[in-house]
Amino acid sequence: MALGPRNPRPIASRSLHRRSSVRRQACKEEAVGDICVVIVDGQHLVRAGFSLILQAQPDIRVLGEGGAAETAISFVKLLQPDVLLLAKSLEGADVFETVACIRELEVKQPRILLLVGSREGDLTETALNAGADGVLGKYATPEQIVAQVRRAAVLPR
Predict the structure, then answer these.
(1) Average pLDDT taken over every residue of the chain
(2) How is residue 42 annotated by DSSP?
(3) What is the pTM of this model?
C-alpha cells in the first residue's frame, strides 16, 4: 500500500473513507429498506470476499471496509450501518472491548456479527455476553453469509 508524501496513513484508507461517505448517502437516498453493512477484518482478502458476496445481493449495500478496531468505531459513528461484520481477531485490539465501546455510542446501534476462523472454536456464548448479536464463520458458504446478515438485520434493537 502506498503512503502519502507527508501523511503516514495509507492512501487507500483515505480514499476508502471518502467512498464510504458517498456509499452511505447513496444507501439512504436510493435504497430505502436495503441492509447497510460495514466489514472490519485485518485480512484484505477476507474483506474483499465478504464484500463481493454481499454486494451481489440486490438488498444489501456495503458502506465501507476497514482493518482496525478504531475503523469499526469510526464507521459506526459516521455511517450508522444496520450490520457490522467485525473480525474476532484484530491486531492490537480486544474485539470484546471494541464491541463494548460501540454499544456505548449514542448512535443508531448496528447488529454486530463477529467473524471467526475455524480454529477459534465456538465463541457464540462469549460473543453474546460481550454485546455482539452473533457469530459468523469466515469459512461459511456465500448462502450462509447472506442469510446470517439478513437475519441479523431484522433482529429487534
Answers:
(1) 81
(2) S
(3) 0.79
